[in-house]
UniProtKB/TrEMBL annotation:
This is GntR family transcriptional regulator. Coiled coil: none annotated. The keyword Transcription applies. Residues 1-17 have a biased composition (Polar residues).
Length: 507
């Protein structure tokens, strides 16, 4: 039985082209039926030249092989060869042997000089740092802002990504795959990675979990979005959060309300949590963001009592692997699995670009979360999961962790030393672990150009080429001004220079 292929519009275009004796190519959607008689080479050279000029063919872009394009357009190979020769003589393209013919020069189009800004750079930066809670794109805007030194929190030493180990694991995985492995998989994640994560959590976080308890997600961000949908459907309208606590987390929890619960030197205050009446709370107990405190033993006992009374704990195991001056603390999930949703990822261990994480939920929510994951994306990409599983089970990931702990510790020490020298009025918080420090300013340090406004200070730093987070981004209640400073992604010289800029601005 014969069937027509393509839409009616596509069939009519192809039929019209065939009637004119032309051919259509996927390359630039060229149709040789549009060329004037006797002028095929001129027409083809002009079409390619126009595509280079308007950016459809950027410098470095490869042209199709002459034989392939000639067959698509139903013209002689000599027509395409002649068009390429003219473009080569013009200096637009060049032959690279087996590398083919590539674009080597793009016509220069003069751009008008930018209008001088109406406001100084500090004012422009200040716009980025004001009212960020209402702008979901604020972190994208800060990442895109040019700066010579980036002290934003949340990034590991990206230059230390284990490329050689990743490539070895990737080759090993690909060599062992069957054709069926390239199809749709289990939306919970590949069995190999779920097993590897269960083993990893048992070794490193004290969590006893079966692979069937593990769901692979696109980072902690997706874990939170899935939980929001499931909790909202269950009638939950608010999730209490730490104060101070991550602005990014509050954004991911929308549209649920996020009543703040104060954090002190021992962690979240459970008495204040009870007072909110919230049925769920999101915590970073291993290394609280941004203060760096660890949830103490007495508070853990109080929290477990609250959970047994019907509360749900969402545990973001933020920075748990990165510790320097204190022993590991057990995950809350290890203590009360029936009341804890546990989320973790490799964003701080390897790189955020991988978008790989895991979610362990109590049985009451497991099926609903699986349905939400299935409807969202049919499952996280399978090949990176298999490579990560190989790294985990081979021991390469633990070797990498030991390496970057040494890197991060040196950079943390460099930042503390620079703060002591350049910002003697600052109080350092959370130095024992993690990838960032938080500093607050004593009363005597709040006078002067910024008068206690950490957003104004952050804006001035950005105008001077240094990115930081103002502490007020991560607060809902009044709090002393401060900055959140990441140190893991910058070298020691950059850290010293960046803190020096902050010291000069404060002085």
């Amino acid at each position: 039985m014969n069937r027509s292929i393509g839409s009616p519009t596509q069939r009519s275009i192809t039929s019209a082209s065939a009637a004119r004796g032309g051919g259509v190519s996927d390359f630039l959607q060229l149709d040789s039926g549009d060329a004037p008689k006797g002028g095929l080479a001129d027409w083809l050279a002009r079409e390619i030249r126009d595509a280079i000029a308007d950016g459809r063919l950027p410098a470095g872009g490869r042209l199709p092989a002459t034989r392939t394009l000639a067959a698509d357009l139903r013209v002689s190979r000599g027509v395409v060869t002649e068009a390429y020769r003219r473009l080569t003589e013009d200096g637009h393209v060049a032959g690279r042997g087996r590398g083919g013919t590539v674009v080597v020069a793009v016509p220069h189009v003069p751009t008008p000089s930018p209008e001088p800004p109406d406001q100084p750079p500090v004012a422009a930066g200040a716009g980025l740092f004001t009212a960020p809670a209402d702008d979901l794109g604020v972190f994208d805007a800060l990442r895109a802002a040019p700066a010579r030194i980036d002290l934003s929190p949340g990034l590991p030493d990206l230059a230390a990504f284990p490329r050689a180990a990743w490539l070895r694991a990737e080759r090993s995985v690909l060599a062992g795959l069957t054709p069926s492995d390239f199809g749709y998989g289990d939306p919970r994640g590949t069995p190999a990675l779920r097993t590897a994560v269960a083993h990893w959590l048992s070794r490193n976080r004290g969590i006893r979990a079966d692979p069937d308890d593990v769901m692979i997600v696109n980072g902690t961000a997706q874990a939170l979005r899935l939980l929001v949908d499931v909790l909202h459907a269950d009638g939950v309208r608010e999730v209490a959060v730490e104060e101070p606590g991550s602005l990014g987390v509050r954004q991911h929890l929308r549209p649920l309300r996020t009543p703040p619960v104060p954090v002190d030197a021992h962690g979240v205050r459970v008495d204040a949590l009870r007072a909110t009446g919230a049925r769920a709370v999101l915590l970073t107990p291993a290394h609280q963001f941004p203060t760096g405190v660890v949830l103490g033993g007495e508070r853990r006992r109080e929290l477990m009592e609250w959970a047994r009374d019907g509360g749900l704990v969402i545990e973001d195991d933020y920075d748990a692997e990165h510790r320097y001056d204190r022993p590991a603390v057990p995950a809350l999930r290890a203590l009360l699995p029936e009341h804890v949703c546990y989320a973790g990822s490799v964003s701080k261990l390897l790189a955020p670009a991988l978008r790989l994480g895991w979610l362990l939920a109590p049985p009451a929510y497991r099926d609903a979360l699986l349905d939400a994951k299935r409807l969202t994306d049919l499952g996280t990409a399978g090949l990176p999961q298999l490579v990560l599983a190989h790294l985990m089970e081979s021991g390469d990931l633990e070797r990498h962790l030991r390496l970057i702990r040494r890197h991060h510790r040196r950079r943390r020490d460099a930042m503390i030393a620079a703060i002591r020298t350049q910002l003697p009025g600052a109080v350092v918080h959370g130095a024992a672990a993690g990838l960032h420090l938080t500093i607050t300013f004593r009363e005597t340090s709040r006078k002067g150009a910024y008068e206690g406004s950490d957003t104004a200070l952050a804006a001035a730093a950005l105008a001077d080429g240094v990115k930081v987070h103002p502490l007020s981004w991560h607060t809902q209640l009044p709090h002393p001004p401060g900055l959140v400073l990441g140190y893991a992604a910058s070298g020691t010289a950059e850290i010293a220079e960046g803190v020096g800029v902050l010291g000069r601005l404060v002085r």
